[in-house]
Fold this protein.
Amino acid sequence: MLSASHRDAKGSVSALAAADPNPTQVDESGLGILDTLGSVVLLTRDATLFREGDAAEFYYKVVSGAVRSCKLLADGRRHITDFFLAGDFIGVEALNTHGTTAEAVNDATVVRYERGMIDALVSRSPRVGRFLLGRVCAELSEARSRMLLLGRMSARERLASFLLRIAARSRRDDRDSIALPMTRSDIGDHLGLTTETVCRTFAELKSAGLIEARSPHDLRVLKRPALAALAQGI
Amino acid sequence: MLSASHRDAKGSVSALAAADPNPTQVDESGLGILDTLGSVVLLTRDATLFREGDAAEFYYKVVSGAVRSCKLLADGRRHITDFFLAGDFIGVEALNTHGTTAEAVNDATVVRYERGMIDALVSRSPRVGRFLLGRVCAELSEARSRMLLLGRMSARERLASFLLRIAARSRRDDRDSIALPMTRSDIGDHLGLTTETVCRTFAELKSAGLIEARSPHDLRVLKRPALAALAQGI
DNA sequence: CGTCCAGTTGATGTAAATCAAACCCAGTGG
DNA sequence: CCACTGGGTTTGATTTACATCAACTGGACG
């Protein structure tokens, strides 16, 4: 079912867990135990992790690379509900089946955990349950902000929001440099725009001096306050 | 803080709970106890139940009437994240503060429950926790479908989706009759459209014979399959 | 009987979509 | 080493769905 290689490798999972960018959060939640329970999955670009409607058997956490989750319409129209970067959990919100399809944006590594084990943990520890509930609530809050964005914001505002969000999440030494692993079309499908509009809007932001681009996938924020104002629709 | 009257009235809450349209669901979840813990709040049209950023002190359940939850941009642009009808829970997803503002669409009655009590319940009973988690997950799934709608669907498709969703939720004897308590502007702010576009699109659906209207707030589905096809973007 | 507000319909404007054509690399292979 | 691909990106011309601006309707209510 998985269009990617995976192997059970407790040792290497622990190694990966040690490289987790924010281990404190995990420990706080009492999820440290997880590190001994996961198995590693290697994904190549565009590989499918799971499909909308699949039984939800696993939770996943991104170790490296990026994953997108999307929904499709019959005629191919696509919406990318979210991007997941290193450290993010995927599939926490699934009840019995997944409501979205998850695919690798680029070559990526994820760890997967048996849902059964997690659910057993939840039954015994309300603390773990609260952690999961917290995650889902945070995602819901995000989703609602994105609904406002999709329903009421201009292309410029959408792109500004997106850039700041990605910048905030992908921890880099330089706060103002932004790595964009996804394509223009992915960004468009996330923001409700076309590839062309995304390009043109990037061009506008550049010529307005708000950002600069070393390459299409490596940007820098030049005027953060102005960008933040745009992102809030001011 | 509440711009509405409320009173502690255990007796009348039980009465209201008895009138709950789907009592089985409540009992299943072990939340029957709630009926003895809530207090009734009477809301007049447009009254505010809570504001975005307010500390989340209560959960609410709609008994009669309708409530909308919305997010605002600095310049007044508004998005209505959802409508809540009789039987729906409000505020379950809040962590510490509310992420949206909740207002009455029309004169409405809601019951409110102290969050502290519910949270205590959750700590003792994983079952109640799972019920809440399930609610939030369902809302997240809804939110994602709406993101697809807002990002990728035409006005006609959005309205068709909306009508079918409302029809499915507001239980009426007649499956095909739809009560719309909210204004055209509310609908527009929910679907990312203007009042005028909502009107025009209703007119299109009418002249295509998919729906008919006794009054602006009382519609009937005439061709459900066609409407459903539209709603799925076919 | 006027006032008000939600709803509707019409005329016009515009942001973004669509259609189309380069362009720019990173591979690949002669 | 250079030509050749092919996928992603960018820029240009045109179209369009929806927004905006504006006027009119019709029921509710004092």
Residues 154-155, 193-194, 196-197, 200 of chain A lie near DNA strand C (CB under 10 Å from a C1'). Confidence is low (pLDDT under 50) at residues 1-5, 7-28 of chain A. Residues 126-152 of chain A form the longest helix (27 residues).
